[in-house]
Specification:
Length: 199
């Protein structure tokens, strides 16, 4: 049980680590167009991302698929940039909070496909932890569960911040979306430009 708990904590710490903020940026970009009242939509969206990254995390950790680590490290910020830029085209409803806008077409599919890429990024870290350990199924499950708890934590922070700004401080949803998505897009672009794969 102690090993399970250790890997769960490592998974949580990995995705919430400010030093490795690329996955955090992606979650923020996914959530930027939503508010706290839309938590069900966000939950479905995050589940799609989870399915994607759980699949490739397992396959890559078990060494059933092979890929270029440098290429994945480039593709991850590209997924962030695409997600953030797509937010600019989201039509914000006139109401700040109560009106439920339609789910942007293809957003679930986007989260699922991009999750596949992020899962390979997660596996790099997990494989370095496992080393030559013979039984990896339990650590794999615990690490993935820790990732999910960390992911939910990030989502709650973003939606709570959105609630405070939109409802209490009366910031326009359009402005919130543009600001947060613009910041994420800028940071993702910086990661792409400075990526060793391109240099």
């Amino acid at each position: 049980m102690s090993e399970f708990w250790a890997y769960l904590q490592l998974g949580f710490a990995h995705i919430t680590d400010p030093g490795g903020y690329d996955h955090v940026l992606f979650i923020v970009a996914l959530c930027a167009i939503y508010n706290l009242n839309q938590w069900k939509q966000v939950l479905i969206l995050i589940t799609a991302f989870t399915i994607g990254h759980s699949l490739t995390l397992a396959l890559a950790t078990l060494q059933l698929i092979d890929y270029s680590t440098d290429l994945i490290e480039l593709l991850i910020p590209i997924t962030i940039l695409i997600t953030a830029v797509s937010n600019f085209f989201f039509k914000v409803p006139k109401s700040r909070f109560n009106e439920q806008p339609k789910q942007p077409k293809g957003r679930y599919s986007l989260a699922l496909v991009f999750g596949l890429i992020h899962g390979m990024g997660f596996s790099n870290y997990l494989r370095s932890l496992l080393g030559q350990q013979s039984s990896i199924l339990k650590p794999l499950f615990a690490f993935n569960l820790g990732l999910e708890f960390g992911q939910i934590f990030i989502v709650l922070l973003v939606l709570t911040l959105a609630f405070v700004l939109l409802e209490l401080l009366k910031v326009r949803r359009h402005d919130w979306n543009l600001i947060i998505s613009g910041i994420v897009a800028g940071m993702a672009l910086s990661l792409i430009i400075n990526n060793p794969y391109l240099n």
